[in-house]
Each structure stands twice: as structure tokens, then as C-alpha cells.
Amino acid sequence: MKSAQYIRLACVLGFLLLQAALAGTKALAESGGTPIDTEAWLRYAPLEADSARKYAQLPSRVEVLHESLVLDTAQKELIQGMSRMLGHNIQAGSEGKDVFLLGTLAEIHKLVPELKLPRLGADGYWLKAAKVRGYDSFVIAGGNDRGVLYGVFALLSNIAREQDISKIDEVDEPYTPLRWVNQWDNLDGNIERGYGGPSIFFADGKVRDDLTRAGQYGRLLASVGINGCTINNVNADPRVFRDDFIPQIKRIADAFRPWGVRISLSADLSAPKALGDLDSFDPLDPRVAAWWKKKVDEIYREIPDFGGFTIKADSEGQPGPSTYGRTQADAANVIARALQPHGGVVFYRAFVYNHHLDWRNLKNDRARAAYDNFHPLDGQFDDNVIIQIKNGPIDFQVREPVSPLFAGLHKTNEAIELQITQEYTGQQRQLCFLVPMWKEALDFDMRIDDQHTPVKALVAGRVFHRPTGGFAGVANVGMDANWMGSPLALANLYGFARLAWDPDLSAQAIIEEWTRLTFGNDPLVVRTIDSMQLRSWHIYESYTGPLGAGTMTNITGNHYDPAPESSERNGWGQWHRADHDGIGMDRTVATGTGFIGQYPPAVQKIYEPLASCPDELLLFFHHVPYTHVLHSGKTLIQHIYDSHYEGAEQAGEFIEQWKTLRGHVEEARYSDILARFEYQAGEAIVWRDTICNWIYQLSGIPDQKGRLGKESRQP
Ligand code: GCW
């Protein structure tokens, strides 16, 4: 090789090395050199010196005002976070210095009587920069111990996001008392509709020996205010009630307890019989009531802070009270009465429906089921029963109206069930940030008695002054290092919890927090990821199921691939009724299933007339010809074609948008996520072509832009 060539080669090599080094430095800054996967949004990356300087005046001591497991956790978390982000070495004890003061409001008052105290409910916290014994200090007060822990997490989140806290005086309280996640984990270690690996709780029919991940999950949940977790599948296995199983479950409760997260179980109503103890599970049989009482007492002896039960009955093959001609209220109450003396609750799911509906009868409608089953029982449930209602009347589709049952219970506690695990929304292999969708449901105004009655206020028990209420999110995290299979999908877990805490937060505010905590504060990174996440639901909807048509996916199989005929001509009731002339379910009162009649009159007035029904839900409520003209001025069929093409194109553009972050996101994470977007772009094309060709063949109406059927026009 000639010397000039050597020089050129050396230059190129040098350039490449420099690039790699630069990318490496940035990568380190982004990852902070901390384990980012299992820690998710709690990675506490070191701040740049400039940013860290803002926090130089923070106290150097931490004083805890009483001893408790949760306060001990709070203190440790504070010490760890301050050390990792700022390099501060916080010592326990006050010793006449500036101090972080951790305690309940009453304790703070005793120590610093001159401080004017705010009002603070259970789980709420108060962050206040204040003088204590003459030193500039920092008060972290809680309505209870959990509140103090939440306050510590809030403070650390502020620092990680580089917020100014020098004059902070922040009071924050949860919107609802019950903020739970549900895990659909089976005892063999599989998770129903789980896309993040096997169960962190169970393996081979037993509770895992090593529950490290359960503890880490407790930490994640506590950091965003989740205070309960149902650990097993709602398609429940009665073996969890076996005497030898309860001590195993106790170990999971022990792993969660330091984080203030109570555990609960999904209960199989037939357990008294299935376990061979009785010959019946009739909820009105006194022997059955006694069985539940004994079992519940036994559980509380092992787990004094046990939360209660989640129950799926008379649904998709699960046993229920209908076996004995009893009502869902009979079933809920017998168990609620066993829990009541211990302070436990029953989340009773409204997902009760017949999955053998006759599809030929145009008046049949699965969407009616929750209201038809539960509205007549309003007022018959005990005060510690909460009816857990899926956000939509069908089943977590990419777009549904809200369930009318939210407005149909005036004397009964309610909770909204949201699906964090992306069963019908891309299974964490495609980007679909669900917070904007959930916000639409929570903000939806039911107009009960023509008053402002948004769903969020109904589920919090604020409208009819019910004793309790809340949120249940089906999370299904697993053993994968990043919990959900995709690092970006964790935004849904974070977002669910933030909405359960405060449903008035905007989707923009939530994603901004999550991105900064997960990827750091580089403005390009924050701007780019926020915008991709915020657009992702609409994009996914555009190429998989626009206009509220409902299931176009393979409903008898994987709930993932496009298979629009799979929902028809069977009893599952997820019909779209597409034929040669038109598509959509007629749910009107006038000519259809009457489902619209389940809403309060003001809402009926929006959905019943074609003229006012919003385009995005048109096919949920109406059966219309393909030539129907939408509010946008386009024909229905042209909209379907265009939407699929636009959606697939936008999904493809994610690749270029992500590529702008090269060198700003740590290389391994960068390439992992890039590969996901490349895959999604391909999947979007598969969806586009399958649905467009299917509907073209059904209708025979060509695409005005000539994108379809070219091959079939060839001689
Ligand atoms: O969406 C359906 C799922 C089932 C699930 C059921 C439910 C746990 O396909 O897997 O069962 O809903 O919510 O009970």
C-alpha cells in the first residue's frame, strides 16, 4: 500500500474512531452508566455538572419522624436518588443541620409549629422548602406513610427532570383511593395477553423462589402512586386458595409491602366446590358464605394488609352465580362480607356477556351486555364492592365509545378498567401510546341529568358520593429486562398510573415526564419521542381500524394479524357486519340493537342521528353504505382506503424520525428501537394491503387514486 493510501485509511479510521468516541460520550450521558432496563423511569442518571449545581443547596441530612417499613423505604430511596443523580452523600439523622424531614403532617406540625399546614388526604404529600430549627430544610410530609414515599419519588422526579425546586411548595393528592394494576399471570408462569416474558410471580405451579423482580415491580408501581396489585389471572385458578398456597402468596405480599403496594387475588367463584370442600358454590348457601369467611380470615392471618379480590364470573367460560339462578350482586356480596371486617374490597368485573350470541339476529349485541346485566342491580351491592368496567362496551378495541354503564350505576361504586398490555393495539411490537385514548374516555361527559358528569368523576365516586372508586389497569409485565417487551411500551404503564393519580394531567405533560425520566433531558430526544408517542395511537388506528369499525384482527386467533372475516358468523359478538353494500353495526334505537338507548338522553342525541355521530365512531353505531359521505366530504370507502395508506406511510416515517436520535440515545437502545420501527413499517403495509384488498373485493368499488386491484385488471 502506498503512503498516500495509508494516510487516507488512517484518516478514515481516525474519523470513525472519533465518531464512535463522540457517540460513546453522548451515549454515556444518555444512559448515565446506570442499569436502565429494569429500572425503567427510575434510573437516576447523573446530572451534568451545570444542572446539578441547581441542587447544591439541598440538605445533607435526612430525618425520619417515626419508624415504619414504608418510611424506611422512603429514606433509602431518597439517599440513593440523591447520590446517583447528584453525588450527594446524605446522612441519616439531623444533628443540628439542614435536613430532609420525612413524616406525617401531624408530626411535622409538632416539630415545626410555625409552618402553615395544607390539608392532606390519605396518600397525598406536601413538598416544602422551609426553615427547620433555623436551617434551610426540606419538608416531605404525607397524609400517611405511603404519602411520604410518594413525596420522595415526586422530589426525585423533579430533580431528574431538572425542575426548579428551590421555592417548592407543592401539595398533591390522588384523585381516587384505589389505584390498582391487574396481572393476568397463570400459576404455570405464562401470562394471558402478556408480551414481556413469563410471570415475575409464578413458575411451574408455584410462587417463584426468587422474588427480586416482584420487589422491583413494587418500586416502579409505588413511584407512580399505584397502591394495589392483583397478582393472578382473572381467569382464575382455584388452587391459589389451597392451604399450602397461601404462605407462598404471603411472600409476594412481603416483597411489595415496603413499597406500600397491597396485593390481592383473582378469585374463582366456584373455589369452594372446585377444591372439593363443598358440593356447591351457590352464593346464597350459608355453607358457601362460611367457606369464604374462613378462607378470608386465613388469608388475613398471613397477610394483614391483603387488598381483596378481583372477580370475573359468568364470562368466557368462568363459573358464576347464574349456575344457581343467583345474581352478580349475590355473588359479589357473599365475598365482600367476608372481606369487610378486614377492610378488604371486591372488584367485581362488569365483563359479563354471552359469547354464544346468535350472529344471524341483527338485534343481538354484545355491547349491551354490561349495562343489561348490571344496571338493574344498582343499589344491591355492598359498600366494599366496586364494579370494574372496561372503558368501552366491547373489549379494548383501538376505538370504542365509553361504556354506558359508567352512567348507569348511581348507588354502586365503580372503577374503570384500562388495558395497559397492548392486546388489540399492537402487542408491544408496534408503537401505540394509549394515554390520549384513555383521556378521551375519562373526559367524556355523560351528561347525567344534563349536568357535567365526566367518566373520571363517576369512577372516583364524586358524582353520587359513593364510598370509594378507582382505576384498574391490566399491566401484564413480565420477566423481560424491560418488563413489557418494548422499552417504549412502558410509557403506557407510567401513563396509566399518572392518570389514576390525576386524570386532569394532559397526555403531553405525561409523556414529557416519562421521556425525560427514561431518556434524559436532551431537547431533541424529548421533542422527538414525545411527538412520536403522541401521534402513535391515531396512526395505529388509521391502518388497523378507522371509523370505529371494531375488530379487524384475528379474534379467534392471535388478536394481532389482520383477519377481518374472523369476527363474523360466530358467537363472540365482535361483528362489523361488512357485506357487498356497506359496513357497521346498527346500534340505533330506531332501527338497530337499541344500544344507544343505554346512554343518558343528551349522549343519545349525539350518537343516534347520522348527522351528529362523529366520523371516528360512525361504524360502531351505524351500518352505512360504502358510498355514504362523511362529515369530511369523502365517501366512506375512500376514507377507508386513504386512512390505511396514510397510516402505513406515517408508521414508515417513524424510522426516519427515530434516526434523527442517532448518537443522542445510547447505541444498544437506539438500534433495538430502530429495529422495532422497521418491523412496524412492514406490518403496517401488511395491514393496509389486507384490509384495502378485502374491502375492495367485497364492495367492488375502486380506489379513486388507483392504488388497488391493479393485478386483477391485467389481461
Ligand atoms: O380481551 C379479552 C381477552 C381475554 C381476557 C378477557 C377478559 C383474561 O382476550 O384473554 O381474559 O378479555 O378481560 O377477561
Let me know the average pLDDT: 94
CATH topology of the domain at 178-505: TIM Barrel
Helix content: 25-40%
Please report the first level of CATH classification, the CATH class of the domain at 178-505: Alpha Beta
Structure description:
The protein has 715 residues and is an alpha/beta fold. Among the domains are: 49-172, Chitobiase, domain 2; 178-505, TIM Barrel. It has helices at residues 3-31, 49-53, 69-86, 105-111, 145-160, 212-223, 246-256, 271-274, 286-302, 328-339, 369-374, 435-443, 455-459, 490-501, 507-519, 523-544, 601-607, 618-621, 636-659, 667-699, 710-713, and strands at residues 61-64, 91-92, 99-104, 125-132, 135-142, 169-172, 178-182, 202-203, 206-207, 228-230, 262-267, 308-311, 345-349, 385-390, 413-419, 470-474, 582-583, 624-625. An 8-stranded parallel beta barrel has the order 7-10-11-12-13-14-15-16. Strands 2-1-3-5-4-6 form a 6-stranded mixed β-sheet. The protein is globular.
